């Protein structure tokens, strides 16, 4: 599996956790769906491709400032909780 595909899977899970807990929505709400679509599109067009590192360490971020703040908020909330939902995914992500 490509690194970008792994990043996408993690991002999808994190946004779902965030939306379920913060917006009390079983499916993604419009705001979270729009953020997910934006983020997936940016990952598809990442200039670093297979050599991509973590987005928060990127020298040239893909996200605009508003969406970058939203993604940080989602990751800050969902990141610590992810270990309870998908522990193997978290360990693999941290080891990469």
What does the overall shape look like? globular
Largest sheet: none
The count of strands amounts to 0
Domains counted in the coordinates: how many? 1
Structural class of the secondary elements?
mainly alpha
Name the helix and strand elements from N-terminus to C-terminus, one letter apiece.
HHHH
The helicity comes to: 55-70%
Total helices: the number is 4
Report mean pLDDT, rounded to a whole number: 87
Distance between the termini: 13 Å
Rg estimate, integer Å: 13 Å
Low-confidence stretches: none
What key phrases describe this protein's structure?
96 residues, mainly alpha, 0% strand, globular
How is the topology of this model organized?
Blueprint: H1 3-22, H2 30-44, H3 65-85, H4 87-95
Helix pairs in contact: 1-2, 1-3, 3-4
Provide an overview of this structure.
The protein is mainly alpha-helical. It has one domain. The protein is 68% helix and 0% strand. The chain is built from four helices and no strands. The chain is globular and about 35 Å long.
Could you give a short description of this structure?
The chain is mainly α and 96 residues long. Helix content is 68%, strand content 0%.
């Amino acid at each position: 599996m490509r690194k970008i595909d792994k990043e996408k899977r993690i991002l999808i899970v994190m946004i779902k956790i965030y939306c379920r807990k913060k917006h009390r929505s079983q499916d993604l709400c419009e705001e979270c769906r729009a953020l997910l679509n934006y983020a997936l599109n940016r990952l598809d067009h990442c200039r670093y491709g297979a050599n991509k590192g973590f987005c928060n360490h990127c020298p040239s971020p893909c996200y605009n400032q508003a969406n970058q703040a939203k993604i940080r908020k989602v990751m800050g909330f969902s990141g610590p909780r992810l270990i309870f939902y998908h522990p193997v995914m978290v360990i693999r992500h941290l080891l990469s």
